[in-house]
C-alpha cells in the first residue's frame, strides 16, 4: 500500500501528469481503522480484524483498541448528549455568549463546552510544537542499559506466558518505539537529554497499549468459565479508577 512506503522509507513516490519523482516524507502517522466485518472479533488478532499487513501494522509504535461495549449508563449518557446537542445547541450558544458578555469576557474566555478549564488556542499550540521540534534529545548512557533491560524483560515475559495466546508481540521495532517515545516526551519538556521520567512515561504508554489490545481478547475457547471471569475481573480491576471496583455489565460484555 501507499502508506507502507511512507512508514518504511520515509518517501512518497509520485507518478502523475508525466512527472515521476520521489519526495521526502518525515511526519507522524495517526491512523484509525474499522473491523473488516463491521464488528471486532475478540477471538482474532488485530491484524486479522483490521485486515492490514502485519509488516505495516507493526510499524505503529502504539495500538489502542476501542470497543463498543454495551453499558446502559454510558449508552444513555451518550444518547442524551447527542439529542441535547441537536435540540438545544443554538440556545446554549446564546446563553454562553450572554454569560461571557455579562462577566466582561469574550467568547474565547468562555467555556461553552463545559470543560472546566480554558484550552490553549491554536496559535499557542503551533508555537509550542514548533519550539519543541527544535530539540534533539539524546539518550543518557546510564539510561541505555535500563531501556535494553526493559525490552529484554518484555520479551521474556511473553515467552513465559506463551506467545501463541498473545494478540500482540514484541519485536525490535518495539525497542525503537520506546526510544522514540522517550525522545518525544523529552522534547515536550524542551530538553536535549532523555531522563528517567521520559522513559517511565514511554513504558506507561507501551503498557497501556498492550493492555488495551489484550483486554479485548477473551480467554481460549473451552476454558473453565470461572477462570475466564477471574481473568476479566483482574484485568478490569487493574485498569479501574474506582479503587478496583468494576461494573458487572462490563464483565458480562467481555465474557
What does this protein structure show overall?
The chain is mainly alpha-helical and 255 residues long. It is 55% helix and 6% strand. It has helices at residues 2-9, 46-50, 54-57, 72-102, 122-132, 141-161, 172-188, 196-215, 225-239, 248-254; strands at residues 11-16, 19-24, 138-139, 193-194. Strands 1-2 form a two-stranded antiparallel ribbon. β1 and β2 (19-24) form a beta hairpin. α7 (172-188) crosses α8 (196-215). It is globular and about 50 Å long. The two termini are 36 Å apart.
Question: Layout of SSEs?
Answer:
Blueprint: H1 2-9, E1 11-16, E2 19-24, H2 46-50, H3 54-57, H4 72-102, H5 122-132, E3 138-139, H6 141-161, H7 172-188, E4 193-194, H8 196-215, H9 225-239, H10 248-254
Parallel strand pairs: 3-4
Antiparallel strand pairs: 1-2
Helix pairs in contact: 7-8
Tell me briefly what this model is.
The chain has about 260 residues and is mainly α. The protein has 10 helices and 4 strands; from the N terminus they run H-E-E-H-H-H-H-E-H-H-E-H-H-H.
Strand order of the largest sheet: 1-2
Mean pLDDT: 78
Distance between the termini: 36 Å
Work out the helix count: 10
Portion in helices: 40-55%
Largest sheet: 2 strands, antiparallel
Rg from C-alpha positions? Answer: 23 Å
Q: How many β strands by DSSP?
A: 4
Helices and strands, in order, run as HEEHHHHEHHEHHH
Summing up helix and strand content along with how strands pair, one would put the structural category as mainly alpha
What would you call the shape?
globular
pLDDT under 50 segments (min length 5)? none
Task: Please state roughly what percent of the residues sit in beta strands, choosing from under 5%, 5-15%, 15-25%, 25-35%, 35-45% or over 45%.
Answer: 5-15%
